[in-house]
User: What shape does this take?
Amino acid sequence: MNRILKTTLALAASATVLAGTAVAASPAAATTAPAAAAAASCTIKWKVTGGKVAVRKPKGNAPVASPNSPVVRYLHRGDVVTSCVEAIARTQSGPAYRKCGRGGHVWRIVKGGQVPATCLKRL
Assistant: This one.
């Protein structure tokens, strides 16, 4: 696993669970054992609503992907993915991205990278 994913999973392990969604508390350092346990216990499923959605890997040390980040793979309408962690990309003006007919700033972290939350529907 790359360093960004480990850090994100560590944050999720130390996060407060609110309404079934992990909300990051603080960027406190944690070991990888709780992170692995959090990743193994994740059962929140999401269905892809967009036609063809790119799974993007953040560039360099960036914690959140952007529309210009490299594409790892594609998901297609109807695919089901598991994600219990989200990354927030805030901007000064407007949404961070426009995907699947809507603008947004939340990226769902899935296996291999990040997907715009506007392209996913919770099952």
Notes: Confidence is low (pLDDT under 50) at residues 9-32. Residues 3-13 form the longest helix (11 residues).
